[in-house]
Structure formats: structure tokens, C-alpha cells
Amino acid sequence: MSMHMNQPLVKFKDLGFAYQDLLFDFGNAQIQPGEIVVLVGPSGAGKSTLMSLLRGEIEPSKGEVYISGALVETKKRRLVLDETRAGWVPQLDDLQSMLTLEENIAYNILRLDDRKKALRIESLKEAMHLSAFSKQKVRTLSGGQRQRVSIAKAMAGNPPVLLMDESLAQLDLRTKSSILLDLKAMVKRDQFSALLVLHDPADALLVADRLWVIQDGKLVQQGAPNDIISNPMNHEIAALFDYVNVVPAELDIPGPWIIEGTDKWIFAHDLPELDAEVIDVMDTPSGSITIYKFEGYRLIQK
User: Fold this and answer.
1) CA 49, CA 58: separation in Å to the nearest integer?
2) Residue 251 belongs to what domain range?
């Protein structure tokens, strides 16, 4: 990396975007070299909009985005997005199925001689555990293997930043976990920055150094995963990570409830055993879940 290692590779200031009656106000944030940040938040909160702003796909209505200290140029200023600045792994891969995985990875490698290009491809194949599939056409690969190729392709030009928008959502748990752990190892080794949108909070907790929580078009909370889980700003954010019970504040129920305006809430795992009607008991891989009916409210206890 050409920048001093203490300088953020991603930085935005007073960033906002307006579209018709939709207003997004993301404020200020940054990502350091070797850091993985995961965007979490409800559907429609603005995660993909922020990704588009960082890529330069759309023009901010206010504020600026910097990658490696350089202002991100939008499509308005460039005909083609600069893929050497931010590697991009879309939700649906854009690989050429009839080409080999090496030919797909090489797509974003510019200004390297043949020997260095071959070394770069081999290094990425090794990092993404693709060497066993050398010279195979992409159409013969599984969904997980294709996503490994997509990540290798996105990083082939050695960009300082990798952006991924729910690209692993269609994969099974074991495949996702394996890819995320390999990606984490590559981020730490090569000291680039990664910003990921992941559908499942468990995936986020597996790899995130920090979380950015998006709610109602705003970046409302930033921090280490454990800090945000132990001190979420509100019950909607808490519910991203586990079952949450929400009842009127005046309802008298035992437990460490958190008051939030006229309501109060509690994580299901913090709800004590209640002297109330049991509607259902379910055994899950992570333990038993009990559903209570308490004064007309359904409460979940884990």
C-alpha cells in the first residue's frame, strides 16, 4: 500500500444522498488497513445505497468519499468505474462461464507483464483455495467456488478496498463460513480494507472487526460487535442479533428490561422463567426456546 499504514483506506465525510422523497444521511466514518467492517441493518435501511456511494456509482447530494486518500470519482465524472480503487463482488456474480477461472481472475489485472500476472493469479488461487480447480471452466464450478473466483477477480488488481454486497447469501452455512474465514486471513495478510453486507448476523460476528449499523437511512452506531450487542441503541438494533421481547413499559414482568420511551425490551436469553402459560417449547441446535403467554403478550425465552 502506498499510504501510511495509519491512514484510513476508506473515509467519508458528511455523506448524504437524496432520491425523490428518500433521504440518506450517513455522516462520517472510516476503515483502517487490515480491518473488516460489516454493514448491518434492516432491509431497505440504506446499506446498498452506501455501497453505491463508496463505489462512485451514484453522486452524493452532499459530502465526499475518499479511498486511499483520493476522492472517489462518480459515473458523472468518469465513463467507467475505477475497479483498481475498490474491488467489487456483486450479489450475483458477473463471471464469464465459458472461460477458465484463471481467465476470469485475470480480467482486472492491468499493467503487469505475463510472469507477474501469472504469479498474481496463482497467489489469489491459493488464498481462495482454488488451486485444485486449475484450468476449469467456471460453468463447472459450484456456487461457493464461483464466489471464491469472484473475490479473487475483485482483488486481482490489488485494490486497497474490497466491497461485497450480500454476495454469499445463497450459500449454505458451512460454505459461507469457510469463504469468510479465508477472506479474513487474506485481509489481515495483505492489509487491505473490506466492507461487507452480510445477510446473516452470525456471519457478521464471525469476521467483523467493527460493525456499522444502518437504520432509516442513517449510520446510527459504529463499534466492535460485542460493544454493539451489549449496548444496542434501541430494540430494533438489538433484534438484528437475537430474539427480542417488546412490551409496554408499565407491564410488570420480572427481568432486566430496558426502558425505551413508552415501551421496554429484553433479549430472549435474558428473560427469566415466568409463572405464565406456556404456549410452546422448541428444541433448537442452540438450546431450548419457550414461548409464554403473559397478560395477552407472547414472550420468547431462550
Assistant:
1) 8
2) 242-301
290 and 177 together in one domain: no
Burial class (CB in 10 A: 0-12, 13-18, 19+), 276: middle
Which of the listed residues 177, 197, 230 is the one where a domain comes to its end? 230
Contact 253, 294 (CB under 8 A): yes
Q: How many residues does the chain have?
A: 302
pLDDT given for residue 17 in this prediction: 96
| pLDDT the model gives residue 111 | 77
Segment 111-134 mean pLDDT: 91
CA distance 97 to 135: 13
Q: Please state the domain count of the chain.
A: 2
Q: State mean pLDDT over 145-165.
A: 94
| Whether residue 189 sits in one domain with residue 93 | yes
Together in a domain, 26 and 167:
yes
Of 188, 208, 230, the domain-final residue: 230
Identify which of 68-72, 98-102, 201-205 has the greatest average pLDDT. 98-102
Distance CA 229, CA 227 (A): 6
Work out whether strand 263-267 and strand 244-248 pair parallel, antiparallel, or are unpaired: antiparallel
